[in-house]
Amino acid sequence: MSYNVGVIGLGAMGSGMARSLRRHGHAVRVFDVRAEAAQAFAAEGGVACATLTDLAQQCQVIVSVVVNAAQTEAVLFGEGGCAAAMAPGSVWVMCSTVDPNWSMALEARLAALGILYIDAPISGGAAKAASGEMTMMTAGVPAAYAAVGPLLDAMAAKVYRLADCAGAGSKVKIINQLLAGVHIAAAAEAMALGLREGVDAAALYEVITHSAGNSWMFENRMAHVLAGDYTPLSAVDIFVKDLGLVLDVARATKFPLPLSSTAHQMFMQASSAGFAREDDSAVIKIFPGIELPQKP
Prior knowledge:
Helices cover 50% and strands 13% of the residues. It is of the alpha/beta class. It is globular and about 60 Å long.
């Protein structure tokens, strides 16, 4: 069965997700504030929509892959937003990393308009999004899942149904981001110490990635450092935001997160030093007295 599905936000993850949906035979319409990104997708066989209203009027399901809650509010409820144009019974799939309480409130707001909602943060990186092998941490009412059908499986290898109402998906994503941010910060610290001590960077990377100290983030992000390439797949400021959300959630119940707090400060330092829009591996640039590999 083919669905008319819209994708809003064609960044590193959204573009791959849109292609995965089209690869599975769905009619995919897209919108991005960068018109050239939407037109590039249209050149591959999709449809670029000039306005959010146009997209919303033609799609049964809309997958939102914008950066944060503020952008989600804008594309839903801002001037010319989707909510006013979506038909009752259509589904909004929210893939951003947000405060779980905000996600729960959004479910109620959309339900009042007759719109179904799935809280569906994502993980796995751009390559897995492009191949349809990423992970989705989802929660929503059964009717929303029934309406979405096979679309989630077209975008992700692992689709976890965590609860029958919104919030659980965002809570699990927050915990994932806690680990991701701390692991990147720890990986950067370890590589920086190795460089300071005169260890060959490539040799250190080889040894650690075949030893017990390895992590997915060390293997992935320190490869960027070795290449001297800080092209942002996930930027420093993403972890300023995401670890900030982690700390906000914990602060509400006075739960201590000492490692998350330190990692957040490291990303804040990198951002304020001018690396905000660089790849999150650029957090290594906060360490003094080291000579980083340069891009050939």
